[in-house]
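haha ok so turns out i had the wrong file open the whole time. this is the CORRECT one, sorry everyone. sequence first:
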Amino acid sequence: MAKKPTAADAELIIKLYDLRREAELRKARNWWLVTFWPESIDDFTKIATALGSQENNWLRQVGGYWSMVASLTLAGTVNQELVLDPSFGGEMFFIFAKVKPFLAELRKKMNNPRMFANIEKLINSSKQGRDWLKYVEGQVASRREAMAKAAKAS
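then structure:
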């Protein structure tokens, strides 16, 4: 069982949250949450291989941020319970749920077996994480369905 959160854990969570408010990271997070809806490995690799493009920068910035948070958490630097709480880590679950359906294939194609690995390990390390991921996967699937219906209607 993880240790009880301390005041130092709370301070670190607040600092990590403050990093998310940086202007460029805010743009990158918005792109991931609103605009970037990969339906396949090709949708992802198109951006991942477009080095120097704004979208590639944003893809790496947000993925890197959440991978860093997961690494710190797995190392015991910050309390796992606080990071996995949806009020802080909900976005991590959301971006992971977007790529999870094709992650194994993506790792092979990008020749990077560690891609999203710490995020995946952290999420799967607790029942709380696994349960919340299941919920978020349903939300992502519903959003994809709504977007597909809207595209057909127009």
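The mean pLDDT is 95.
again sry for the mixup
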